[in-house]
Amino acid sequence: MNWSLVTGATGGLGAAVATRLASEGRSLIVSGRDANRLESIANDLRETHGVDVRTVPADLATNEGLDALRSITDPLDLVVVCGAAYHYGSLMELGDAEFERLTVCNVQNTGRLIRWAIEPLERTNGGLLVVGSMGAILPAPQHASYSASKAWLHQFVRSIQSEEGSDAVRITLGIPGGMATPMLLDSPAWESMQNNPLARMTLMSPEFVATQFLAAVRRGRPVVIPGFLNRWACRLVRGLPLWLRLWVARRFYAVGQ
Ligand SMILES: NC(=O)c1ccc[n+]([C@@H]2O[C@H](COP(=O)([O-])OP(=O)(O)OC[C@H]3O[C@@H](n4cnc5c(N)ncnc54)[C@H](OP(=O)(O)O)[C@@H]3O)[C@@H](O)[C@H]2O)c1
Fold it and tell me: Quick one: which atom of ligand 1 is closest to the CA of 57?
C-alpha cells in the first residue's frame, strides 16, 4: 500500500490538502509541530473518510524533526511539502534565534526533506508538491526573511526539475497568494490587507488552492499559481522595473497606510 505524506497538515492549506486526499480514499501520513492538533485532525479524517492515517509530529526547525520524517520507510507515492515558518515585521525586530529557526526550517531542512523524498518517490513514480509563495516573486515588505526563504525554495525546485533524469518523479511548485489561514489571520499583514481592495480580491480559500495543487501534480505540471488575478500579477510584476515593483509591493501590502 502506498502512502501520501503531508507536512504542515495542522495548518490551513496542509489540512485542506490532507482532507482532499482522504476524500479520495488515500492512506495518509500527516505531520506538523502540534501533536495534539495533529492527532485530532487524523481522528477526524479516519472517522469521516475511513482511511488509514498516521501522524509524525515534527518541528522542521530541528534535526530531530527532520529525522522523524526521514525515518518513514513506508512506500510513498505523494509527498506534499507544505509546512513552513513565518515571520511578519521588520528584519531588525527579528532576533537571531528566530531568524535562524526560520531559515533552518524553510531552507536547510526543507531542502533536505525534498532531497530525501526523491528516492522513495522514484520507486513509485510518485509526485512531489512543494508549496512556495507569491512573496517569493513580489518584493514583500515586512516579510524579508520569509519571502527570501521561499525564493530559495522556488529556485531549488526549478533547478531540480531541470536536472537530467528527474522525470521519474513529477515535481510541482505550487505558488499560493493570500489565503485566510492562521498564518495570515494571526499576522498584522491581515489587517493591512483589509485596507487594500486588490489584496482582498486575490484572497483564496485553502480548499480551492489544495484542489488546484493536487490536480497540477497529477498532470505533472511544473508550476501552478491558482487564481487568474494572481497568475497575471506574477506575469506583470516580472516585467516591471524594480522601482515600480517596489512601489506596487508597498501599495499591495498597504505599508505605512
Ligand atoms: N496563508 C497564506 O496567505 C500563504 C501565502 C503564500 C504561501 N503560503 C504557504 O502555504 C503553506 C501553508 O501555510 P498556511 O497558510 O496553511 O499557514 P498555517 O495555517 O499557519 O500553517 C502552517 C503550517 O506549517 C507548520 N509549521 C510551522 N512551523 C513549523 C516548523 N518549524 N516545523 C514544522 N512545521 C511547521 C505549522 O505547524 P503547527 O501549526 O503544528 O505548528 C502548520 O501546519 C506554507 O508553506 C506557507 O508558506 C501561505
Answer: 40
- CB of 178 closer than 6 A to ligand 1? yes
Residue 136 near residue 150 (C-beta atoms within 8 A): yes
Which amino acid residue places its CA nearest to atom 19 of ligand 1? 11
∠ CA 187-192-195, nearest 5°, is 145
For 3-252, CATH number?
3.40.50.720
216 alpha-carbon distance from chain centroid? 14
**Taking the domains of the chain in order of start, what are their residue ranges?**
3-252
* Residue (of 83, 86, 88) closest to 193 by Cα position: 88
Query: Long-range contacts for 204-208 (Cβ within 8 Å, ≥24 apart)?
Result: 204/176, 204/177, 204/178, 204/179, 204/230, 205/16, 205/179, 205/180, 206/12, 206/13, 206/15, 206/16, 206/179, 206/180, 206/181, 207/16, 207/19, 207/20
* pTM, two decimal places: 0.96
pLDDT in tens, 147-187: 999 999 999 999 999 987 667 899 999 999 999 999 999 99
For residue 80, the surrounding DSSP H or E stretch is: strand 76-81
> To test ligand 1's pocket by mutation, which of 62, 108, 175, 181 has the most ligand atoms within 8 angstroms of CB?
181
